[in-house]
Amino acid sequence: MKGLVSLFILCLIVFVPTAADALSVSAAYACVIDAGSGRILYEKNAHKTHSMASTTKIMTAYVALLNTSPDEIVTVSEKSAGVEGSSMYLKSGEKLPMHDLLYGLMLSSGNDAAVAIAEHTAKSVDGFCKLMNDAAKKIGANNTSFKNPNGLDAEGHYTTAYDLAKITRAALKNPDFSKIVQTKSCKLTGSNTVPERYLTNHNKLLRMYPGCIGVKTGYTKKTGRCLVSAAEKDNMRVICVTLSAPDDWNDHKNMLDYAFSNYSAVPLIKKDVPIKTVPVSFGDKEQAEIVPKENYYVLSGKNENLSDYKIEINIPENLRAPIAKEDCLGSLTISYSGEVLKQIELTSQDDILYINPPKPSFWEILYKLITPFGG
User: Fold this and answer.
1) Sheet of 287-292, strand order
2) Residue 180 and residue 119 share a domain
3) Is 337 a catalytic residue?
4) Catalytic pick from 109, 229, 244, 348?
5) Catalytic: 57?
6) Are residues 258 and 298 both part of a single domain?
């Protein structure tokens, strides 16, 4: 009888549903990651490949920002102006800055803008796709293949929910990209043929979800509805991806709610809190209390420890006065799974003044000279 009771209790423990199990997601493929560390917080078929429609343009914008300047003038070709699907309505021969094309790409999801960007950046769409694929490999999106810059259905054009989250994480580190994708609407000043354009972001989560900071919608009949979102709350930033999602807006609200409800930001490094004591020569203090110049927060779930984060302190073993509090004395490096996440400057908690050491007397000098021979 005791054996049956023990077995029943064990079964309850094994089959108690987790918060992730209770998360309702319509998408065939989904992933939620911590933008800070890249750690997966939720996944559903996250490593299976699928086409990604216009969420492709996250990489298009990222590669363009890496290889061009926003003020470069782009001449629109007849080919780019005639691309099918969603458009910012470019005209053949139109000249406008890369800045405007990037906003048309990410807010209006312009397929025409994508081709114009590709042709200007790499002289051809094929050349630009090579840049996209090279960038994907560098990011570690190893199950991703780009065949075009706009996301129209093509053989061999695919990613995974996890890879797309990693690509978005890299792109959001670029301040220009981050500014573009969280813009709800804007007016472009115009070009040589079009006086001005008014753009509205297709990403409704910017208006629906508090703290949303982007990033991109996508849809084709073959691929289904795709969505990438990112949001910030209480020192947390999370990224959500869904591919082939009939109810993507609600999926993302549920996924973001799940992340913010089940994880919290905890200070791994606290600003101005001593982390090491280092001896000081010729100072009015014999030791310097070494402190970081800023806080660093990491995501932690209930009952988790932070042992997976590696902290490396790089500072001399001995310091020499004078030392001012604002002086950079070394650095602290934070890593997760082999990736460097952050470097933080280290300073002294206090000013340390220089004290001129007294000159030794004649007898002290004589003693030091004699001592080695005196045994």
Assistant:
1) 309-314, 330-336, 339-348, 287-292, 276-281, 319-320
2) yes
3) no
4) 109
5) yes
6) no
The total number of structural domains in the chain stands at: 2
pTM for the full predicted model:
0.87
Domain hosting 115: range is 23-263
Displacement of CA 168 from its chain's centroid (Å): 7
Structural contact between residues 198 and 205, judged by C-beta atoms closer than 8 angstroms: no
Whether 54 sits among the annotated catalytic residues: the reply is yes
Annotated catalytic residue within 51, 54, 80, 348: 54
Instruction: Tell me: do 186 and 309 sit in the same domain.
Output: no
Pairing verdict, β 236-243 and 29-34 = antiparallel
In this structure, is residue 172 part of a structural domain?
A: yes
Identify the CA nearest to 106 among candidates 182, 31, 162, 173. 182
Catalytic residue among 37, 44, 51, 57: 57
Residue 374 is assigned to a structural domain of this protein: no
Q: CATH code at 163?
A: 3.40.710.10
373 lies in a domain? no
pLDDT along the chain (375 residues), means of 10: 48 49 90 97 98 98 98 96 94 96 98 98 98 98 98 97 98 98 93 88 97 98 98 97 98 97 95 96 94 95 86 95 95 95 97 84 74 57
